[in-house]
């Protein structure tokens, strides 16, 4: 069996080499000829999988993406080849939720906000939205969920509509890119919604760039509106509209999901799927490969309490300001969006770190946030 995998899948050699003849490729030079004899094709979001890539291949039996989003796969084409859509749904949900928390704590520091006085509107209550909801609950932050597809499907949680989301102090977007139809998310934040935002609100997009109309957003800023916006994702990546960057409070290069665990879990999920489909027993586990973080233990500053304590802890693991600073200072350089993503020094998830809380009364919130108790 010939297994072709994109070079951005961590631990792919470790997981797949025993299953067959495994070969690595770069998204920059992958083409139809190169993968013409693949039985299994494993990608991340940087490789577009469509007729152009697969029409020369008669044998392909499995195509999988080690990411949550699937909009780089031509679903209609894959279905016409009876291949289906295989993804790593949920692999990086914790990573994105922790990215959002870092953004919230930084914005709170910069604007002197007490987060427990704010209401967060989560749009999209799937893997990411649900993880974020759990962490906000741990922090005692009020939040509302908006997810019409889940509401229509009978999900028992309480949902609100977009008009209620628009009243929230903080709005964070976690929907797939769906172009058209009843649940369209393309330009969900169009000029009209952006005009309705107040300068006291915060809008975060860590799902797909096309969910916010970037031209309309730039027009708001150019008209003098001081909106608070955090963007991890942009329209037309990697060739984003650089004019927008200086206006964005915290700007990053589509790395919200890039924790060691989030990326590697994606590879592990595809390994399990391939084993299932081709009748292999899955013997390998992610825990066999993940490095121990250095350091692996955090100490709580005993003088801090409440938000100050949680903020210090979260930002000691991941401080989004570092990524934003690097992004803003270098994004004008050629091919920089891709460069940052390729060379990103990926971070760890809270669960990889043990916290000794001593007698701190805030301990339960720390563990409920995901930190390890050991
Ligand atoms: N920035 C990153 O690094 C990063 C990482 C992971 C995921 N993502 C993106 O975030 C998206 C969400 O990730 P996920 O793992 O939670 O996916 P998911 O499929 O588990 O959840 C998405 C949710 O959005 C809901 N939804 C669909 N249309 C909607 C609409 N019109 N309004 C409100 N809700 C709607 C769906 O019902 C679903 O529950 C992914 O599709 C991907 O595009 C980005
Ligand atoms: O959809 C996802 O899972 C994320 O957007 C993911 O981080 C993107 O994957 P990448 O571009 O790193 O392959």
UniProtKB/TrEMBL annotation:
Stretches assigned to the D-isomer specific 2-hydroxyacid dehydrogenase catalytic domain: 10-274
Keywords: Cytoplasm, NAD, Oxidoreductase, Pyridoxine biosynthesis
Domain D-isomer specific 2-hydroxyacid dehydrogenase NAD-binding residues, every copy: 114-255
Biological pathway: Cofactor biosynthesis; pyridoxine 5'-phosphate biosynthesis; pyridoxine 5'-phosphate from D-erythrose 4-phosphate: step 2/5
Active site per the UniProt annotation: 208, 237, 254
EC numbers for this chain: 1.1.1.290
Membrane-traversing stretches: none
A Pfam family that the UniProt record links to this protein: 2-Hacid_dh_C
Cellular component GO terms held in the UniProt record: cytosol
Sequence ranges assigned to domain Erythronate-4-phosphate dehydrogenase dimerisation in this UniProt record: 289-370
SUPFAM superfamilies for the chain: Formate/glycerate dehydrogenase catalytic domain-like (SSF52283), NAD(P)-binding Rossmann-fold domains (SSF51735)
Top class in the EC scheme: oxidoreductase
GO molecular function: 4-phosphoerythronate dehydrogenase activity; NAD binding; protein dimerization activity
Any one Gene Ontology BP term: 'de novo' pyridoxal 5'-phosphate biosynthetic process
Location in or out of the cell: Cytoplasm
UniProt KW Oxidoreductase keyword: yes
Subunit structure: Homodimer.
Function: Catalyzes the oxidation of erythronate-4-phosphate to 3-hydroxy-2-oxo-4-phosphonooxybutanoate.
Family in the record: Belongs to the D-isomer specific 2-hydroxyacid dehydrogenase family. PdxB subfamily.
Protein name: Erythronate-4-phosphate dehydrogenase
Annotated source species: Paraglaciecola polaris LMG 21857
Biological classification of the source: Bacteria, Pseudomonadati, Pseudomonadota, Gammaproteobacteria, Alteromonadales
Gene: pdxB
